[in-house]
Design goal:
Blueprint lengths: L34 E6 L4 E6 L12 E5 L1 E3 L3 E6 L4 E9 L4 E8 L8 E4 L3 E9 L2 E6 L5 H8 L16 H4 L7 E4 L11 H9 L3 E7 L22 E5 L1 H12 L4 E4 L1 H9 L9 E5 L14 E5 L6 H10 L1 H13 L10 E5 L18 E4 L3
Parallel strand pairs: 1-17, 2-18, 3-12, 3-14, 4-11, 14-16
Antiparallel strand pairs: 1-2, 5-6, 5-8, 6-7, 7-10, 8-9, 9-10, 12-13, 13-15, 16-17
Helix pairs in contact: 6-7
Length: 372
């Protein structure tokens, strides 16, 4: 079967209509009470289940890989010395006293400008890199300390509301421990202690990577030819223990299940030659249909924005036509979308799927429903 040609694919091939009311702007009362769609390219099947059914899709010897990044309070409000109001979104903490940030202001601040945040501390603009500004924070506290005291949680723009006190807990996985992300690895938001205990009792292993999700994850694809899109870069770390767990799982016939696209991107970035390596690195990996996955066998994820790089990634994993059918089914069945929405478990397609543009071919997907 021919390998899909990314140069033949357009951003419009990854579009779909999403009614506004299906965007989940608040989480469900219980983490594990969401729905779960199972997508199986081998059977061409899309099945409706509950997230509580997840242990039934795993077996002893399988491995779940989580991203343990912790979301920081990355949004700051303040003013320039001239009195003009500013809003800063920290993209990345560079050290104890420096950070890169997007800045929203009537006029972009020049190097040397001092910014006053929360009427509590100052930061100086050191330089500008494209859309990002490098800031030096008041050395009386670390950047993370200033953010914890005076920052606000940066909810995704599509949630379209101000962060509330409950978001400090719910927009954070229960296993988050490494501060640095400005967006949550949202597939992990569904897990609570009860379901983790059930998975451990079933003999399912767990391992962790760290990938600090940047604000660039919300940047739209502004070009129609997807090969011209420039990905944002994010830093990641793969511990030795995770490499050992993945190697053991593969050798013993188990399946590596990535919890979220961030975990998948870290794992695949750390295995450029097929063998997973421990260590830290930067990744701007852009996964599109035709990519050959080296580490991950299954992907647990939420539903992604139309025309987004993450929708391209899941289309590469499960097959373009089947994923298009899955999203159409999700809209028809009133699934909840995006960060606070429902989940899907995708089996890896065994062959690169050719694709037909919407309206030009028949989607070979059997849609079944089981809401037990």
């Amino acid at each position: 079967m021919p390998r899909p040609d990314a140069s033949a694919m357009k951003t419009a091939d990854f579009d779909y209509h999403l009614p506004d009311e299906l965007i989940a702007r608040y989480p469900l009362p219980e983490r594990g009470s969401s729905r779960l769609m199972h997508v199986d390219p081998v059977k061409g099947a899309v099945t409706d289940r509950r997230f509580a059914d997840l242990p039934g899709f795993l077996r002893a010897g399988d491995l779940l890989v989580f991203n343990d990044t912790r979301v920081i309070k990355a949004r700051l409000f303040g003013q320039k010395a001239s009195g003009g109001r500013i809003e800063a979104l920290i993209e990345r903490v560079l050290g104890d006293h420096e950070a890169l940030a997007f800045i929203r202001a009537s006029h972009g601040p020049k190097p040397g400008t001092r910014l006053r945040f929360a009427d509590a501390f100052d930061a100086e603009v050191l330089e500008r890199h494209d859309d990002l500004y490098r800031l030096a924070f008041d050395p009386a506290k670390t950047v993370l300390a200033w953010l914890e005291i005076h920052g606000a949680l940066p909810l995704p723009p599509y949630i379209d509301r101000v962060a509330e006190a409950s978001d400090d807990h719910r927009y954070q996985t229960i296993y988050a421990r490494e501060p640095g992300a400005v967006a949550a690895p949202t597939a992990g938001l569904h897990f609570d202690e009860a379901i983790l205990a059930r998975l451990r009792a079933a003999g399912v292993g767990t391992a962790f990577v760290t990938l600090h999700v940047g604000a660039g994850t919300f940047q739209p694809v502004r070009v129609e030819d997807i090969t011209e899109h420039h990905m944002h870069s994010e830093c990641y770390e793969i511990p030795e223990a995770t490499v050992a767990a993945v190697t053991h799982t593969q050798a013993s016939g188990g399946r590596v299940c990535s919890v979220g696209t961030t975990s998948l991107r870290a794992l695949e970035s750390a295995a450029p030659e097929g063998e997973l390596k421990a260590g830290t690195g930067e990744t701007a990996i852009f996964i599109t249909p035709g990519y050959s996955f080296r580490v991950v066998d299954r992907l647990l994820t939420n539903f992604h924005l139309p025309r987004s790089t993450l929708l391209m990634l899941v289309s590469a994993f499960g097959g373009m036509d089947l994923m298009r059918a899955a999203y159409l089914h999700a809209v028809e069945q009133r699934y909840r979308f995006f960060s606070y929405g429902d989940a899907m478990l995708i089996e890896k397609s065994s062959v690169p799927y050719p694709f037909s543009r919407p309206g030009t071919g028949t989607l070979d997907a059997t849609r079944t429903s089981d809401t037990r």
